[in-house]
Automatic annotation (TrEMBL), chain A:
This is ABC transporter permease. The keyword Phosphoprotein does not apply. The lineage of its organism: Bacteria, Pseudomonadati, Pseudomonadota, Alphaproteobacteria, Hyphomicrobiales. Belongs to the binding-protein-dependent transport system permease family. It comes from the Bacteria. The chain crosses the membrane at residues 67-87, 94-119, 125-144, 190-210, 222-242.
TrEMBL record, chain B:
The chain crosses the membrane at residues 29-48, 82-101, 108-132, 144-162, 193-214, 234-254. It is found in: Cell membrane. Its main location: membrane. Keywords: Cell membrane, Membrane, Transmembrane, Transmembrane helix, Transport. The lineage of its organism: Bacteria, Pseudomonadati, Pseudomonadota, Alphaproteobacteria, Hyphomicrobiales. It comes from Xanthobacter aminoxidans. It is a multi-pass membrane protein. This is ABC transporter permease. Pfam families: BPD_transp_1. PROSITE patterns: ABC_TM1. Residues 74-255 form the ABC transmembrane type-1 domain.
Amino acid sequence: MSAPQSSRALQRGALGMVLLVLAWEGVARGFNLPAYTLPSVSAILGSIFDHRTTLFLAGAYTFAEAFSGYVIGAVIGIALAVVITLIPMTRNAIVPVATSINSVPVVAWSPLILLWFGIGMPSKVVMVALAVSFTVFLSALAGLDRVDRRSVDLMRSFGAGRLAILFRLRLPTALPLIAAGLRVSTVRAVIVAIVTEMLGAYDGLGWVIYQAVLQVDFVKVWSAIFIASAASLAFFGLVGLAERRLVFWK
Amino acid sequence: MSATTLQSPATRPGTSPLVTALFRAVRGLAILLAVLAAVEGLVIVLNVKPWYVPRPTLVLNAILATPEPYVQGFLRTLTETLMGFTSGAIFGVGIAIVFFRARVLRELIFPVFVVSQTIPVIAFGALVVLWFGNTLIAKAAISFYLTFFPVTVNALLGLESVDPRQEALMRSFGASRFQILTRLQLPAALPQIFVALRLASALSLVGAIVGEWFGDTVGLGVLLLQGMYNENVVAIWAAIAMCALLGTGFYAVVAAAERALVFWGAEQ
């Protein structure tokens, strides 16, 4: 995509968002919708401002959970894929186990994880790590497998060991796919953290949303949703930026 | 799965696709039983507490002791999943065609879709249940919301990968735009669409389960929550097993439909 074309797409995208906000505001005000149906954007923004300390702290709490789980999950996912490439024998053990764990929808694990790890932060970190590790594992494995057989043979003929082939050839080749997996996982990480928080937590955006639902304060629900969405987008943007730096040849 | 097994019914008239499918199912079942037996043995030998991993027979007994809630929950969650999946798939492909035809609309709306996907489903769930009441529609709506986006993205990708020369050829023969769409572009996009549908089969189940967490009384999501509140790990594992059964079963059906419809072989 050439530069002027992509900047036009960016403008149109921004325009689309502005139109959406205007239509939302117009519908909510024009039809005088009650807050439980659809509060106006301005009311939500006002509520975000009113509850800025609570929302910011809750957002930071959730982000801390999502980020630590994300890092742990990413390390586990990549490490498993590397182990499989270094020791091919382990593939038949690791892949079926990972697939069967993943055959259960990830949210179905959360009651069990909450019982095992308690209501505090650890249960959310474990859930996020579980959700992230499988996605990263699959993309890393696909990337590591993609390496051209002849390139491996060439390096081996020059006397390169398995580790050298891994670091000089396989990992760089796999990097675009790993980075894509990491980028997709960001949004998933925040969502899984919030979902688990809603089942039981002491703090965090999911907890705020749950409390607000109980208090029938739907403007607050929406403001927490806005913050969560913004946090996801920021996380996504940061990882995307790092990806462009790291995978500069793409 | 691979091209060779796909073509086997055609090249070897002796084995029908039904037999191959049956053989696969039996083999899968045998592997599953072997794994469960291994878990059973490991749990006994290592003396794992039921609090972590109960013996599979214990879980099976729990299901067989009171089968009704599990069967009912399975059917309810299946209904919600199917409703969300079908509507999400139809909407996803439809909107992809619209985006494909009208670039302006695509550039205006697509970013909104992207942003909408960052909304935590469960928060959205509270609102949806409020809008639609505690009905099947509410759960299906959450499931729909998770499903349509990947289908849109992949259908668009597939539609755009069509060779423009083929389109020009059809147009030179006087084909209408509708004919080009149904005879060329949609079939060409089918492999990509099915990649998304396989992913969506899992996502629609997640949507249905999460939707049930808002004060429903029947469903697999409800069973999960009840198990958690009663701190009954065996019941949670039983519900997880049912979820896995539903998830893999649905995935297998979608994959089988893919093999039947995209008979010329999808790029995996």
